[in-house]
Backbone:
């Protein structure tokens, strides 16, 4: 029997979700500012990162900026998959979660319909989560190698997980407009975590593109040629700028076809470990 997860419970602090039952209109930061949602506006940079991430999470879970995605997530939550019939699906947008002083940021694509959209936490409850957390655990970025549900005891150690899109999209393919609508959340997250970050792992081409656009929006676009997508490629942009490590996404499409092996993903996080520890310039 799988645990039933109450919709108002929270993932690891500070990526803590608040009660998503509010019907108040909200959206990503630009839209939120106009709508004045209950979650409030972004907190000032002087506030601790944990509080700012918590305030951001409160706005994320109430976002309704993409009507198509919101309807899809709610429909999946209503109809469920037979194997998860005893779950109360989350069905809302997902905030990032992890260590507010993270040295490593992991950027994924989007929650899975029956993974994050069910469990209410990024990379939780599906095979991508199994792969990612095993690799992060082996590299010392998580206290356990599994991520099955909120309240499972998972803690990220010096790491933070987020995604390009915070609502589960049909066929795992958010539209360009949906990615653009969601990017301000990533920009805000990046701005909060920036002082402590040493490395960023992007999982897949969409995550890479979203991260590079977020850097530009933040006014931190790296000089030089645009980083290309190649598994294992590592880009160092100089002091004050986290290194970028590119990886295939641990989706079934990649893991079941052999495009991505556990050893390949381990190497990505071993590189991240070295960069975060200052063992690699
Ligand atoms: S994808 Fe992002 S911007 Fe669109 S509704 Fe979900 S949280 Fe809001």
Residues:
């Amino acid at each position: 029997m799988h645990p039933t997860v109450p919709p108002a419970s929270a993932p690891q602090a500070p990526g803590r979700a608040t009660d998503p039952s509010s019907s108040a209109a909200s959206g990503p930061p630009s839209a939120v500012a106009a709508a004045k949602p209950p979650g409030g506006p972004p907190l000032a940079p002087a506030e601790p990162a944990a509080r700012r991430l918590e305030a951001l999470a409160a706005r994320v879970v109430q976002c309704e900026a993409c009507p198509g995605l919101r309807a899809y997530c709610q429909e999946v939550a209503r109809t469920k998959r037979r194997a998860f019939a005893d779950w109360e699906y989350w069905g809302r947008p997902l905030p990032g979660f992890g260590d507010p002083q993270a040295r490593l940021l992991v950027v994924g694509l989007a929650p899975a319909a029956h993974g994050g959209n069910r469990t209410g936490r990024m990379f939780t409850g599906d095979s991508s989560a199994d792969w990612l957390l095993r690799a992060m655990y082996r590299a010392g970025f998580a206290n356990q190698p599994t991520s099955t549900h909120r309240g499972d005891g998972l803690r990220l150690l010096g790491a933070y997980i987020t995604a390009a899109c915070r609502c589960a999209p049909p066929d795992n393919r958010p539209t360009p407009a949906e990615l653009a609508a969601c990017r301000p959340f990533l920009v805000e997250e990046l701005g909060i975590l920036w002082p402590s970050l040493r490395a960023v792992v992007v999982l897949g081409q969409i995550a890479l593109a979203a991260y590079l656009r977020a850097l530009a929006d933040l006014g931190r676009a790296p000089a030089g040629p645009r980083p290309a997508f190649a598994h294992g490629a590592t880009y160092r942009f100089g002091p004050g700028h986290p290194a970028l490590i590119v990886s295939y996404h641990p989706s079934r499409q990649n893991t079941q076809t052999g495009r991505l092996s556990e050893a390949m993903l381990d190497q990505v996080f071993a590189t991240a470990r070295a960069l975060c520890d200052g063992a690699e310039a």
Q: What stands out?
A: The chain has nine helices and six strands.
